[in-house]
Amino acid sequence: MTDDRVILDGAAVEAEGLTDWRLLFQALHARFRTGDFATGLRLVQAVGEAAEEMDHHPDLDLRYGQLHVRLFSHDVFGVTRRDVRLARRISGLAAELGVTADVAAPQVLEIALDAVDAAAVRPFWRAVLALEDSPVDDELIDRGGILPTLWFQATDPHEPPRQRFHLDIRVPPEQAEGRVRAALEAGGTLVSDDRAPTFWVLADPEGNRACVTTWVGRGAPSA
User: CATH topology for 3-101?
Assistant: First the structure.
């Protein structure tokens, strides 16, 4: 496998010093505060030209006052040095326009379903949500990046109404403790921090659970 097809893990990405970017699951994310729509359009145009030149194409989400950029290598379903090079180029283009990144903004939501027999229920959810099998694990994904990823957590047999779904919110490592603290101050409880800083398990006042997660303690996925 050539160097440009090697998937980088969190530590390798962090070592690249991409100050505008954060690794969330299998992609680099950055949110640029453009201030107005016209500046956002100019940045999109510049990014598009760079992407064509480098033959590597990001996902762009332009809203009023901000541009969210997601970078990953589709052929290996992870972050490679191609993404690192394009990330640096995009940061440079943003700087030329006087646009800065909001490094606290990137986050990605996943949905987890407790399942006694994941193989039995996965086909239903694949069909009803029109998702696809992930090439690197047992998750179901929307390749267009619009719907959240759905993954299946092994559980013991139980009767409803035990909670079956929970939300996983992936944040940059430096944001995780603040997010946990905010949830606790909002009335939540800490169920477990045994696996922190990989993830914290929290619950709302009625016991419904959510996890704050980071890349720390996880290896790079294998394609």
Answer: Gyrase A; domain 2 (3.30.1360)
Q: What is the pTM of this model?
A: 0.85
Least confident of 102-106, 110-114, 204-208: 204-208
50: helix, coil or strand? helix
Phi then psi for 99, rounded to 5 degrees? -100, 135
Residue with tokens 């390749």: 143
What are the structure tokens assigned to 125, written together?
């959810």
Residues of the chain with CATH 3.30.1360.20: 3-101
**What whole-number distance in Å separates Cα of residue 134 and Cα of residue 140?**
6
Q: Do residues 42 and 49 lie in contact, with contact meaning Cβ atoms separated by under 8 Å?
A: no
Q: 108-213 has which CATH code? A: 3.10.180.10
